[in-house]
From TrEMBL:
This is 5'-nucleotidase. The keyword Zinc-finger does not apply. It catalyses: a ribonucleoside 5'-phosphate + H2O = a ribonucleoside + phosphate. One of its GO terms (cellular component) is cytoplasm. It comes from Geodia barretti (Barrett's horny sponge). Belongs to the pyrimidine 5'-nucleotidase family. GO terms for molecular function: 5'-nucleotidase activity; magnesium ion binding; nucleotide binding. It comes from the Eukaryota.
Length: 143
């Protein structure tokens, strides 16, 4: 689905959880709206798992967010997504979370090899949200 996990959707989820932070960066497609506010297209060039972070604009935007940081949480749902952080300099620790929503029986071993955590089927976000509580509640945890 073209618009299932576009940047607009992801950022709205983060807004709903009051989790938008200056160091949050989403590399994904964005919706293009017409004058009536109807989504009619997507941003260009089209971003997919094999070109995320490859264009000079994307690399510059991502690199500016990771200067001085060596930890990344990468979430994806395809076999190419785990490689998205490979071209980023100075990343020493990448936690790769994979979503496997179809052909689970046939693809689980492959996904277990390329992701650190694999969530299958129509799971909720309990695992993902469990990773982020200190970040989401910075003041509470004095980070």
């Amino acid at each position: 689905c073209l618009f299932c996990l576009c940047a607009d959707t992801l950022l709205e989820v983060f807004r709903q959880f009051s989790a938008v932070r200056p160091n949050l960066h989403v590399v994904s497609n964005r919706l293009v709206f017409d004058e009536a506010g109807v989504a009619v297209s997507h941003s260009h060039p089209f971003v997919h798992s094999y070109n995320k972070g490859k264009s000079p604009e994307q690399l510059a935007a991502v690199e500016s967010f990771i200067v001085g940081r060596s930890n990344i949480i990468l979430a994806g749902d395809s076999q190419g997504d785990p490689k998205m952080a490979d071209s980023l300099p100075h990343t020493h620790h990448v936690l790769k979370i994979g979503f496997l929503n179809h052909d689970v029986k046939d693809r689980l071993d492959l996904y277990m090899d390329i992701y650190d955590i694999v969530l299958s089927g129509d799971c909720d976000m309990t695992v993902n949200l469990g990773i982020f509580p200190a970040h989401l509640h910075r003041e509470k945890y004095k980070i």
